[in-house]
Amino acid sequence: MIDSKRLRALRPRPGEGQSSTEHGVIPKGAKAEYLAASPAAYPWGTTRRYNSYKDFLVQRFGGRLQKVSVDAGFTCPNRDGLKALGGCTYCNNTSFVPAYCKPGMSIREQVEAGVEYLERRYKARQFLAYFQAYSNTYAPLEQLKRLYEPALENPQIKGLVVGTRPDCVDEQKIAYFEQLAKDYYISLEYGLESIFDRTLEALNRGHTFREWVEAVEMTAGRGIHICSHVILGLPGETREQMLETAQVISQHPIDSLKIHHLHIVKKTVLAAQYKRNPFPVFGYREYLDLAVEFLQRLRPDIHIQRLCGETHPRNLVAPIWGVRPATVMQHIEEALEKEDAWQGQLYQPKK
């Protein structure tokens, strides 16, 4: 377990070795240098109380990276009948596909349109092509190559982020990603959502926790960044089970994690279930408290990509918090500060 006394001793006292820049706005173009020079209060080398994936990317690439979403027209084995029909009960992919991913556009055209949009909006210059919608390895390898490789032809694309399921990879596909990773940043995002098979069955996921373990183990140690997703607040899961999730997934070789609170989206099976028989969803303060405890139990070297779910308010059924995701993350950081807590504080490695 992490020595909390040692970490407290490492944390800078107010005004000690800090400038106004470290409390306020970082000069434009200087974030990588700022992060490298920041007092290393925590094992990941910054004074932020959780291990931020954005900070990791800045340190690795020397500046901001944006993900360019690409819709390659995939489906899922629990949608097309191979494993099940209808897809995951909570899923409405149209609720998060950006406007520049228009039907009929080629991969090259989507990448070009996304780069142009994100350059204009965020002044970004480096990008990752994000194959996001549905299961983006659910096809023969030769077909996958024809989809991924045009995205990498754009000189501003530094790598691929591929969202998929643990039952949609095999040794041949992982070996291909391993080869790509010698020249590009490659990240595989394995949807998990829950470590409990009973919950996975209720969500119509069509795979087991064991299949996730096998996919992660097959991918580990091959130069591929492994991300996973969990949803906190799923029907039937207790607070204790959610906290157990942090401890269990920390025993497996993932590199980053997206943590979502359960948010019920219109035009989903889950929305219909909620309407027929409402089940508890998180209150705002309740979720902040849980997020702090979850981070405390999580392995400290796991990069955090998300700390809450996100959809457009017009698509949201519940919970209605009226708070933007960036504000949720800010409030979680404030709660960590108030509790003098940090990621990995209560993590216990498996003996």
What features would you describe in this structure?
With 351 residues, the chain is α/β, with parallel strands linked by helices. The strands form two sheets. Strands 1-2-3-4-5-6-8 form a seven-stranded parallel beta sheet, with helices on both faces. It has a two-stranded antiparallel sheet with strand order 7-9. The protein is 37% helix and 15% strand. The radius of gyration is 20 Å and the shape is globular. The protein has a single domain (4-12, 30-338), classed as pyruvate-formate lyase- activating enzyme (Alpha-Beta Horseshoe), CATH 3.80.30. The longest helix is centred in the first third of the chain and has 16 residues, at 107-122. The chain has helices at 4-10, 20-23, 31-37, 53-61, 107-122, 141-152, 171-180, 197-202, 209-219, 239-249, 269-276, 284-297, 325-338, and strands spanning 65-70, 126-131, 157-164, 185-193, 225-232, 256-261, 264-265, 303-306, 316-318.
Describe the SSE topology:
Blueprint: H1 4-10, H2 20-23, H3 31-37, H4 53-61, E1 65-70, H5 107-122, E2 126-131, H6 141-152, E3 157-164, H7 171-180, E4 185-193, H8 197-202, H9 209-219, E5 225-232, H10 239-249, E6 256-261, E7 264-265, H11 269-276, H12 284-297, E8 303-306, E9 316-318, H13 325-338
Parallel strand pairs: 1-2, 2-3, 3-4, 4-5, 5-6, 6-8
Antiparallel strand pairs: 7-9
